[in-house]
Design goal:
InterPro entries: HIT-like, HIT-like_sf. This is HIT domain-containing protein. It holds the Pfam family HIT. Residues 9-113 form the HIT domain. It is a single chain. The N and C termini lie far apart (41 Å). It is built from 5 helices and 8 strands. The protein has one domain: HIT-like (HIT family, subunit A, 2-Layer Sandwich). Helices cover 39% and strands 16% of the residues. The radius of gyration is 17 Å and the shape is globular. An 8-stranded antiparallel sheet has the order 1-2-3-5-4-7-8-6, sandwiched between helices. 31% of the residues are buried. The chain is of the alpha+beta class.
């Protein structure tokens, strides 16, 4: 882990650069909309301080992260009638080198354990920290049934991208062609405000339920 809590060259460390995407902040994390979403509802959970990946985020943050993941599950269930798929590149294949967990509202998407491509069934965040400390790079997938860690192999990576993430995105939005980040960013101009409006309604409902 870098000892600096922020990095001047990291867009996720510069709140002013992501301010329009922020949906929620807690003591150590933010939930934001992805700036180039695969689908409407595509969110990111990220630490406010600079960590390379979730394999370096301290254990003292785990309960807070767990609660945010639970909240995203509830949001997707209520507003997209869909379970959540969590995805992290690790440091492997990242485009922004700041820990961030993708959250997708994907229905009917499950990794088949018999494929045998994963290296570890993850039981806690400690597994990510232990792997990263000893093995380094990884990528991470969590569907409604399993949390899985994969070693940084390109064939495995693209297999999971193709069979899980792209299949989920296609089922969600009906678009079968692969879109570049630039194309997704353009499409996101319509999707991001819809996601933000649904999140605002979700938060208001939560407050009403609490009262």
């Amino acid at each position: 882990m870098n000892d600096d809590t922020t990095q001047t060259n990291c867009v996720f460390c510069q709140r002013s650069k992501i301010d329009t995407y922020i949906l929620k902040e807690t003591p150590h994390f933010r939930i934001i909309t992805d700036y180039a979403p695969l689908v409407e509802g595509h969110l990111l959970i990220m630490p406010q301080e600079h960590y390379a990946c979730y394999g370096t985020v301290p254990a003292s943050f785990d309960a807070e992260l767990h609660e945010l993941k639970r909240e995203v599950r509830t949001f997707f269930d209520r507003f997209y009638a869909s379970p959540v798929v969590f995805w992290e590149h690790g440091v492997f294949r990242q485009t922004v080198f700041h820990a961030h967990l993708h959250c997708f509202p994907f229905k009917g998407i499950t990794y088949n354990l018999t494929d045998g491509l994963h290296d570890l069934v993850v039981s806690s965040q400690d597994d990510l920290r232990t792997w990263y400390a000893s093995q380094g790079h990884y990528f991470y997938l969590e569907d409604p049934h399993h949390a899985l860690l994969f070693s940084p192999d390109m064939d495995r990576y693209f297999h999971v991208i193709r069979t899980i993430l792209w299949t989920g995105a296609t089922a969600h939005n009906g678009k079968t062609e692969w879109r570049s980040p630039q194309q997704r960013q353009e499409a996101g101009k319509a999707m991001i405000p819809l996601t933000a409006a649904r999140w605002k309604q979700f938060q208001q409902q939560g407050e009403a339920h609490a009262q």
